[in-house]
Amino acid sequence: MTGTARVDTARLMELLSVCLGAYYGDFTVAAASESLTASQGKALTVLRRGPAAMRALAHTLTCDASNMTGIIDRLEKRDLVRREPSPSDRRIKNVVLTAEGERVADTIRAKMRTTQEGLDALSDHERESLHTLLERVFISQPAACAGGIG
Questions:
Q1: Phi and psi angles of residue 81, each rounded to the nearest 5 degrees, phi first
Q2: Residues 6+ positions from 28 with CB-CB distance below 8 Å
Q3: Rounded CA separation 66/72 (Å)
Q4: What are phi and psi of 85, to 5 degrees?
């Protein structure tokens, strides 16, 4: 046994809360610099991974489907996304990022200076360890929420 005390789950949860607050604050400011709400920015970030059905987007962003419709309507007016019929079920509309939407999503991430600087301060080994741990805790879990932003 080593001489270090085990950090309890409550302390880890509190630290995650502080980290996520800083991350979301950084993200919100970056999205606002592109004249987007945080929800609109999150939608672009999720769509950066690939097209998604409206219902799936609402689920991922944990918002009501009617709210998601409004978010997508506003993004569509700015030509950042477009709706297309699903190739597997033409009754379903997928939301697809346009080239301009990709550019804006990338710009938001690039403007997240606080987050970038914090991660850049880590060594290669620390970055790999952080990646492995975050993936194990939040991605590899069957019930994990994969709808994060950024």
A1: -140, 165
A2: 38, 41
A3: 10
A4: -65, 145
Residue 112: both structure tokens together: 């997240």
**The total number of residues written for the chain in this structure:** 150
| Span 51-103, pLDDT tens digits | 999 999 999 999 998 999 999 999 999 999 999 998 888 888 899 999 999 99
* Four-CA torsion 26, 55, 47, 33, nearest 10 degrees: -40
CA dist., res. 150 & res. 147, Å (int): 10
What angle, 0 to 180 degrees and rounded to 10, lies between the N-to-C axes of helices 9-33 and 113-120? 130
Q: What is the pTM of this model?
A: 0.82
Calpha distance 114→23 (Å, rounded): 8
What is the strand order of the sheet 93-97 is part of? 52-53, 93-97, 81-85
